[in-house]
Each structure stands twice: as C-alpha cells, then as structure tokens.
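step: validate -> pass
step: tokenize input -> pass
step: predict -> running
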Amino acid sequence: MSRPDSPSPQQPERPERPQQPERGQLPANATTAGPLTSTPAASSALDVERDSDVPISTQIYWQLAYQIDSGRLLPGSRLPPVRDLGAALRVNPNTIRSVYKRLADNDYVMSRHGAGTHVADRPPQRRGAEALAGLVAEMLRRAAQAGFTADEVASATFAAATERKRPGEHVHVLFAECTKADAAYDAERIAAAFPGIVEAEGSLLEELAERIERFHYDLVATTTFHADEALAIVGGQLPVVAMLVGPGFIDLVHEVAALPSGSNVGLVCASDRGAQNIAETLALSGTTGVGVLTAAYGDEAGLAKVDREADIILLSREALALGLDEQFDRPERIREWTYEFDPSGLELLRRAIERALAARAAASPADGPPAKRTTAERAGRERATVASSG
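step: predict -> pass
step: emit ->
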C-alpha cells in the first residue's frame, strides 16, 4: 500500500457534490471544516479546540479515524486536499500533511495518483488503546461544548452501555447486509417506516454474531439474498426476517440473466468486496454464459476495461455516491444496483415487530420500565392498525 504525502495543489480535483450539513453551535475558540467528502453519509464536520491540551494534529487524526471506524467515511471516500482542509480549519498545511501520513501509516487511507487521498478499501478494525482513547477524547470534547462534565459523561456512558444489554423502550432491529453503506441506509429506512416503535442499526454480515453477543436485539432483518447466511449465523437465537425487495430490482436481475451468451456485465463498487457480492447475487439468480468484469474505485485499468467491454454496467450505491457513473461513455448502459423494499417485505417485518411487542407485554414488569413499554406497545398497535388498513 502506498503512503500519501499530500495531494499536490496543482493537481486537478473532481468537483465535490454540494452538501449542506447541519452544524451545532461551537465555542468561540473552535473552528470548523466543511464537508469531508461527496458521500452523503459523511456530512459531519471537523472541529479544533485551540485551548485543549491535546495537540491539534492529534485532534484531527482522532476525528478522521473515528469517522472511518464508524463508517461515516466509507471506503473510497476522498479526503479534502491538504491545503483546503488547512485553510478551512485555519491550520498549517504541514499539520494536515502529518495527519494524513499518520492515517496512512495506520492503514486508514491511501493515495491515488492524480486523485488525492482516499479511505482505504479495507480500513483497519481498531480495538487498541489508541482508538479507544480517541473515541473517549472526542466524546468528552463534544460533551464539554454542551456544558457537561466528565463525571456526567461517565455516568451516562455506563447507563447507556447497561441499557444496550437489555430490552428498552423500542423494538431493536439489527439489519444485516454485505456492505456498510447498504446496512446503514436500510436501517434508516426501517426506522423511518416504524417511527417511535423501532430502533434499527446496520451491521455487516460477518459482524452479526458479535453484535448479538454484546447487545440486546429483538430481531434480525436482511434481504432474501442473505437470508440463509443470516439464519446460519444467528443460529436460532433471534427471529430472522427475510425482506423481499421491490420489483424494479428483480427486473434488473432478470435483465442481466436474459443477456445473450457471450455478453459482458460490468460490476462497479467502492471496494472489491462489493463487486464480488454483486457477482454472487447474479450467480444465485441463475445468470449463466455472461462474462463478469469487476472494478473498484481507484482501479483505473479495471474501470477502463469495464467501459470498453461491458454491455451493461451495474453501479452500487457507494459507487454512485462517489460519482463513478461519470467515468463511462454510453450512459444508456448504466444501471443502479440499488433496491427498495417490497411492501410485502415491510409487512413481514411489521408482523415480527408485533410479535416482539406482544412477547414484551407478556414478560415480567421487572424487565424494564412499565410505562415506557406500555407507550411503545400502544404505538405498535396503532401502527399495526394503520398498516393493516392501508
């Protein structure tokens, strides 16, 4: 893996897509940078506390590492050019340069000639003392901005950690997918479909077992494509809801499967793994006799080959967010490899949520605050009535 120094200020940059992230009030001695990337999920800003005992370079490093660890900055996401970020934060460019080098030394980012510094395709999974210290420092700094003491933060953290291990006010749904972007996006859609009733979180399939062991969830949801894998991982510990996707996605799979023998399909994602997941889905659909060309963000040779040889080009949600659709001629070949939930899939989930609420109502009151559970149960029944009559 190559190590970035800094993107040359003379190198042309692809224009950022416009964003308008919400910003909180910062103290007078703090400065804030604009959006870090064109990826919609990464809309948060950096801030610098000039009166802090923590060096400015360390503050910036911790915040960027946290955004990568948490999935807010997705693989392939571009970091701002050194001079741009330095100007936005009113920090010497050499400080930003040292931050990017430190991120590269820890395998968080890599440089691509002519394209700047990007999040690595496979960022490290950090569990060491340095990563934890960064998360704690970030939390304490933001809490202090809001007027909370370190003791109050510690007390709230302990209470929240304890609460995560037992049933709470809402039904906890863990949505599992093969990429962080899809998992997070679908979890948000599920929470929006059942407001006030459900708390939904996204998880990679390979992290499913660990998440279930560490925290309380009422059920697991995934798409039908990953249902068998999720069932095997969960092993009967929780109900698993296999949600159907909308007809538009099914039509796209059928379109690919119906291509004449000898045709080529280009699969373009933010990472190699994402492209492999699409290829597996096509194989499960019965696609035969069709060549598959995969390319990830930054793979210029692979992208060029896809552009030359592919009859249809499938782009993931992450690839679209990164603007990869603009790199191909003949845009009529491009298809969005994204999906919406079929109403029947949401209906299956609604029934599972009802069963979870019913089981909670029948449980001992000692399992949680009765008033809160009653509120959630009443909201669940009202929601179920609306959904059933729709």
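step: describe -> Residues 1-44, 367-390 have pLDDT under 50 and may be disordered.
step: cleanup -> pass
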